[in-house]
Design goal:
Blueprint (H helix, E strand, L loop, with lengths): L11 H31 L5 H39 L2 H36 L7 H13 L1 H15 L4 H25 L3 H24 L15 H68 L1 H9 L3 H35 L5 H14 L3 H16 L3 H25 L8 H30 L8
Membrane topology: Multi-pass membrane protein
GO molecular function, one term: antiporter activity
InterPro entries: MATE_fam (IPR002528), MATE_MepA-like (IPR045070), MATE_MepA_subfamily (IPR051327), MdtK-like (IPR048279)
Length: 459
């Protein structure tokens, strides 16, 4: 079967659009079903606000679990795209087989570990005596489906990196649509509340996993799921490349942990749960921006990796500029839209006046730096796709570390609500640092690749 997209020959502008748009749509719908989850939960009679706070506490733990799928899936797929660009199919198949084994092992180990540790994790992540019941119910059921979540996420990278962006989108849409349909059935129809939302999510992830496995075991995928030729060195290389995006996602969980803890501490018994509920709504809105933006920067990484492997550095440069331009256009539109749309978005979660006012204010504060954020996402993901993982990791950790420090310092010096300003301050600061660093290193990095022989690229 001919690939949907020829990463080494198709015109760059159209190629970026054909890979970015399906991934953006997939990310948007994926986030939409997460938001719908929270929308339904927030509207459960009598307990909606508390249940929403409980599920919000689960968010960073869910992100932490899924980050392991990114560790293996993105690390393995970037290397596989490079090897395909070199025309080294044997190495590409070895990366596929080693990655698949690693996904199986991680899924099994994490399921057991998180089921044993979930109570302690929920308390660390800001659960109160009132919200623990809802958080525990959701987390217990969700963790039981970790296997399917990791497999669907990790395997989808190997579909997209081979040029099948529409199939990759369909993998995500399968789960998203399933969850959107089942949510009201389980939450309200069967009167299962928070447990119903978690069950619908697990069923949806199972559907996505089956879709990805069926494609990668069929005849359409040039390199599908395979076995054998395992190598500890290869596995370590996969982890090394995937470690930067893994840390980016894993530290997101730490940031939410710090934020929830700070809001609970400085908000006190009277405002703590309210502030966490407001932050949950704000973070849900931010996902509508960061998710599609990640679709632009992450969904197009295969173009950069493939052409870097083929030593077509001019195509790499053109692609990076096209990706950045698309990111700037998207974030500019979202910045302007937010000024008008924030109150309407909040209304789908709550009609409680105090909570709604807090959430609208928080959304407008959080999005002050979204246009510079596009530089951070695109350039850091670009460096990762080109194998410059240490640089990418340092830039990401700079942003996350600054965010944590500001989240701790601002409420201590001012009020609990001041924590919301940490996001835009670091979006602007990190964008400036990342852009400067990228411009300093990219020329030399690409020249070195041009001078390398095929045998010198290694695994």
């Amino acid at each position: 079967m001919r690939k949907e997209n020829d990463l080494g020959r198709d015109p760059i502008g159209r190629l970026v659009l054909r890979l970015a748009v399906p991934t953006m749509i997939a990310q948007f719908v994926n986030i939409l079903y997460s938001i719908i989850d929270r929308m339904y939960i927030g509207n459960i009679p009598d307990i909606g606000d508390l249940a929403l706070a409980g599920v919000g506490i689960c968010g960073p733990i869910v992100t932490l679990l899924s980050s392991f799928g990114t560790l293996v899936g993105l690390g393995g797929s970037i290397l596989m795209a490079m090897r395909q660009g070199e025309g080294n199919e044997k190495r590409a198949r070895q990366l596929m087989s080693n990655s698949f084994l690693m996904l199986l092992v991680f899924a099994a180990v994490l399921t057991i570990s998180f089921l044993l540790l979930k109570d302690r994790l929920l308390m660390w992540f800001g659960a109160s005596e009132v919200t623990f019941e809802y958080a525990n119910t959701y987390m217990t059921i969700y963790t039981a489906g970790t296997f399917f979540a990791l497999m669907s996420l990790g395997l989808n990278y190997f579909i997209t990196c081979q040029g099948f962006s529409t199939v990759g989108m369909a993998t995500v849409l399968t789960g998203a649509v399933t969850n959107i349909v089942l949510d009201p059935v389980f939450i309200f129809g069967l009167n299962m509340g928070v447990a119903g939302a978690a069950i619908a999510t697990v069923i949806a992830q199972t559907a996505s996993c089956l879709f990805a496995v069926l494609f990668l075991t069929g005849k359409k995928a040039p390199i599908g799921i395979c076995f054998g030729n395992y190598s500890g060195k290869t596995m370590l290389k996969i982890i090394a490349v995937g470690f930067s995006p893994f840390m980016i996602l894993a530290t997101d969980s730490a940031i939410i942990l710090v934020t929830n803890t700070v809001l609970q501490k400085y908000g006190g018994a009277g405002q703590g749960d309210l502030l966490i509920s407001g932050a949950t709504i704000v973070q849900s809105y931010m996902m509508l921006i960061s998710g599609p933006l990640l679709g632009i920067s992450g969904g197009t990484q295969a173009i950069l990796s493939y052409n870097y492997g083929a030593r077509q550095t001019e195509r790499v440069k053109k692609a990076e500029w096209s990706i950045l331009r698309m990111g700037i256009i998207f974030t500019t539109i979202m910045f302007l839209l937010t000024r008008v749309a924030a109150p309407y978005f909040v209304m789908i979660f709550t009609r409680q006046e105090e909570l709604a006012g807090l959430a609208v204010w928080g959304i407008r504060v959080f999005t002050l730096g979204v246009i510079p954020m596009s530089f951070q996402y695109v350039l850091v993901d670009g460096l990762t796709a080109l194998g410059r993982t240490k640089t990418a990791l340092c830039l990401s950790l700079f942003r996350k570390t600054g965010y944590v420090l500001l989240t701790l310092a601002l409420p201590a010096a001012l009020t609990a609500k001041a924590a919301f300003y940490a996001e835009p301050i670091m979006d602007v600061t990190a964008a400036a640092v990342s852009t400067t660093t990228f411009l300093l290193v990219i020329g030399r990095h690409l020249r070195q690749r041009e001078q390398e022989g095929v045998t010198g690229s290694g695994l």
